[in-house]
């Protein structure tokens, strides 16, 4: 099977040290496997994506010599694919419309997980005359989901208990990340998903969607996270600074250390070649 990997940043801010680790890991995994590497701009949540940040991210990647093998794609241009997938899920009895507001969900089931409400399945049996707000995937028939992560090993989650029926299309009409990423990965032939460990928790939901849509399941590898001074994941939300790329080779070396790779010498391109040869997940 030929290898296809991808890096899929959300253009809500410029790349920072943590996102460079994920980009470098996915690029190295593709090169170590002799495969192709794609870049997908995940701008499906348009209100959170200021104009121009997609171009900035692409320029940051180029400065680090992390160049995709095909032209980048944008989720905001792929709505017809997501609608077709939702239609298939509805026709197969896997998805249903939901009329509940967040306040109603909180009143019905105040349980929270990572700050998010666990949906109790209120609208599974119909809307009872209320207008639909969102669309959700049924999880009550699935049972525990198991998978193997190439770095973390055996994983398991009961999505119905941990998350509940999750949103596919939001009340504001925007497509949810879970559906978009599953459709995109399948459409682009992605065989291996390499991304930050904070996204491992999304994997069982994506596996359920893949099964419901009859799509292939990629292999998954979740990389170590870069932590901020407060011990939390370095992110745009907690003030992560944009990459300083006056010295791309040094920025890449710092990212490589996070991945347990050896010190390398030379230009950014020369260091990338050395790390691809030393990549341990082959």
Automatic annotation (TrEMBL):
Keyword annotations from UniProtKB, A to Z: Aminoacyl-tRNA synthetase, ATP-binding, Ligase, Metal-binding, Nucleotide-binding, Protein biosynthesis, Zinc
GO terms, molecular function: ATP binding; glutamate-tRNA ligase activity; zinc ion binding
InterPro entries: Glu-Q_tRNA(Asp)_Synthase (IPR022380), Glu/Gln-tRNA-synth (IPR000924), Glu/Gln-tRNA-synth_Ib_cat-dom (IPR020058), GluQ/Sye (IPR049940), Rossmann-like_a/b/a_fold (IPR014729)
EC numbers, comma separated: 6.1.1.-
Residues spanned by motif 'KMSKS' region: 233-237
Residue intervals of the Glutamyl/glutaminyl-tRNA synthetase class Ib catalytic domain: 6-262
Role: Catalyzes the tRNA-independent activation of glutamate in presence of ATP and the subsequent transfer of glutamate onto a tRNA(Asp). Glutamate is transferred on the 2-amino-5-(4,5-dihydroxy-2-cyclopenten-1-yl) moiety of the queuosine in the wobble position of the QUC anticodon.
NCBIfam families: PRK05710.1-2, PRK05710.1-3, PRK05710.1-4, queuosine_YadB
UniProt protein name: Glutamyl-Q tRNA(Asp) synthetase
């Amino acid at each position: 099977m030929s290898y296809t990997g991808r890096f899929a940043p959300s253009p809500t801010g410029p790349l920072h040290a943590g996102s460079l680790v994920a980009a470098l890991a996915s690029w190295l995994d593709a090169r170590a496997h002799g495969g192709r590497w794609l870049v997908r701009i995940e701008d499906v949540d348009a209100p959170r994506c200021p104009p121009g940040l997609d171009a900035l991210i692409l320029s940051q990647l180029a400065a680090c010599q992390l160049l995709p093998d095909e032209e980048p794609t944008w989720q905001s241009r792929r709505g017809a694919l997501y609608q077709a997938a939702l239609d298939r899920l509805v026709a197969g009895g896997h998805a249903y419309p939901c009329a509940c507001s967040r306040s109603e969900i909180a009143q019905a089931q105040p349980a929270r997980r990572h700050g998010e409400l666990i949906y109790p399945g209120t609208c599974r049996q119909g809307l009872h005359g209320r207008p639909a707000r969102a669309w959700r995937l049924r999880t009550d028939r699935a049972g525990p989901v198991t998978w193997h992560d190439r770095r973390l090993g055996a994983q398991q989650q009961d999505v119905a208990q941990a998350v509940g029926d999750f949103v596919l299309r939001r009340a504001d009409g925007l497509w949810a990340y879970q559906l978009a990423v599953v459709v995109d990965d399948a459409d682009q032939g992605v065989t291996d998903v390499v991304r930050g460990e904070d996204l491992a928790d999304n994997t069982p939901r994506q596996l359920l969607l893949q099964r419901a849509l009859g799509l292939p399941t990629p292999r998954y590898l979740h990389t170590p996270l870069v932590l901020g001074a407060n011990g939390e994941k370095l992110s745009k939300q907690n003030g992560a600074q944009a990459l300083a790329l006056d010295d791309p080779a040094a920025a890449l070396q710092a990212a490589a250390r996070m991945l347990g790779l050896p010190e390398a010498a030379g230009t950014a391109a020369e260091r990338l070649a050395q790390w691809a040869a030393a990549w341990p997940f082959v």
